[in-house]
Amino acid sequence: MNDDSSNIDQPAGQSPSARPWLLGGLFAATLIGVLLITWILVTMVGHQQDAREPYARVAAVSEISTDPLPWGLNWPHQFDGWKATAGDEFHGGSSALPQSKLDADPWLKRLYAGYAFSIDYREARGHAYMLYDQGVTERITKKPQPGACLHCHASVSVLYRRIGMDAMGEEVTPETLAVDFNTPAVMRGFEELSRKPYQEVLALLQATPDGTPGENEPVFPSAPAGGFSGEYAGEPVADDSVAKGEAHPVTCIDCHDPKTMAVRVTRPGFLQGIAALAAGDAAVPHLPSIGQWRAGSRARPYDPNQLASRQEMRSFVCGQCHVEYYCGDKATLTFPWAKGLRADDEEAFWDDFRFADGSDFHDFKHGETGAPSYKAQHPEFELWSQGIHARAGVSCADCHMPYQRQGAMKLSDHRVTSPLEKINSACQTCHHVSESELRARVATIQSRTRALIQRAAAAMTEMLDTIREAQAAGASDDDLAAVFAHQRQATWRLDYISSENSKGFHADQEAARVLAESIDHSRQAQALALRWRAPDAPDTSVLFSRPVRGVTPEQPPRTAESETDE
Amino acid sequence: MSQQPLRHWIRRQLALLLAKPMVAALVIALGVLGGLGLATFVQGKGASYLVNDPRVCINCHIMQGSYDAWVHSSHAAVAACNDCHLPHDFLGKWLTKADNGLRHAVAFTTGWFHEPIQITPRNRRVTQGACLHCHGDFVAHAFPPGEANDDFMCVHCHRAVGHAER
Asked: Which keywords label this protein (chain B) (predicted)?
């Protein structure tokens, strides 16, 4: 193409002025080509580099590193995803709190009458807000609560270890705290703190080293001391409880081993609960490692960190908190799994459970009827366990933290949120149908569940009205013992599905089954309460029962006599 | 002695080039383009794409999952990537290779592609043809020749034969 170099004369048929343009155009095109190829080369080398070194440890992390900042230097993509659970930016302050569920569904106030959830109960926000929102909810600021609440709303394993080592007479320094996980000490600290007052445990948490001495600015702002009012349970916050350090919401160390980055569980409540589940005989086909442990010698309790598969761990880390539990000051925080994971199994567990003082278990006495009642708290792990996805080996992380690609790197999306936000990576990996079709399928399940919840709620409120009518007519608690049992079973089942955050999706048929039983118990309680007020029923045996018409009457049996007649 | 004419020639060429800076610039630019292009071709293991080795497909990290699943699949011993993803005639094979190579290069360089990756309608017809290439005699009654039917393909039911990524 380039014969100019060997020929000084102009080629025939070309004007003198056209050549610079032609040459200039060729030159520009070549430059663009060079830029394009350079870009391809740079991205290619970058991808090859990504594939070679998934991450570089530039900051040390140890068992004391509850502060996510050093982790974020090593694993920036995961750190960014975790921070993104705050949305575009962190929204604190009372005006930013999500909508009250009590306003949206007024029947919740009656369901939780006499319990702190009837004071303040809101839509959920992302992980980033867990500690802030707990600090400002009126459930905490208007009523004393136990330190057990922090088991799930803060990064507590270092605090538990510190208190546990202290109680066991071991030397506590930042160095000894950072050596290893020290399960016995963590368990001991958990037992020590579970029933202590919330504010006391929060102050201890803030005074616990977080691996970044001298750096006291949490990634997400702390809640104002004493909530928006500056008071806890009507008492002004003491001046000496000023934060001495940082308290963090759930961070990297709560699900990852700082040495190996392997997924692990750290929450004492879960470790005890899953060991009790394994030791029982409830069917858990979706957790094969428990089946293997049961077939073995059972010499040591089931330990998920030793025995669970990686895929099971991708659900267990979520099951550390997204579960039903008792969290109060009359017993250590308890996951009710010894009899199984279904709503009925957990209910049976609480039926047999006794408080530390030996009294019968109940979460609260219902404010309208006085019936001893159970509170179900967001049992996502348990409901998922009943569903088809769990049965097919799909973990929580597969949908809530689906794999994403950063160049050549494959990593879990740490912006934990609804899979509907990322249908392509969450659902379409297995379901090869369009996004709109998948959305419609989810909508079908959730709208059916919502309709059943509203129906169960209507039955529940009518039940309460009817029981109160019986009480106004003079019925005593003894008269209503059977009614109260039905009430407890009805409200437990309605609460179980309405407080679970998937609106039935985690196990749609199970959700419908539980709600159907709730409606049945509400109506049985209502009928019993009505019957208590009604006069004695008359005898119904005198009533005429109309037979089916047109049936051929039965022939009398033939006798020898009748045969000769013919 | 023999170097004399060569040196003369080179000096003459250089003089001619220097007399025309525009031409000189273009020649240099073309040299840079060629050099960079060659470097990119080498860095990207360009030549490896001209053979049949399935490991070539994991030059790009995104295919690792498919490759890992294929190794454990029922067809791993009898068919590699190209046996199912390329037509079995010379022209079709190389056209498909070029078409997919270009699309994959653009997608993986820019990052503009659907995740999880989805097969194109044309490539799905290629895999269907590959199924019939081996199993055609057995299923001839279900797939009369010359009647392409995109709604009825082997992989709709036999999804795990190549690489079920689960």
From this structure: Cell membrane, Electron transport, Heme, Iron, Membrane, Metal-binding, Transmembrane, Transmembrane helix, Transport
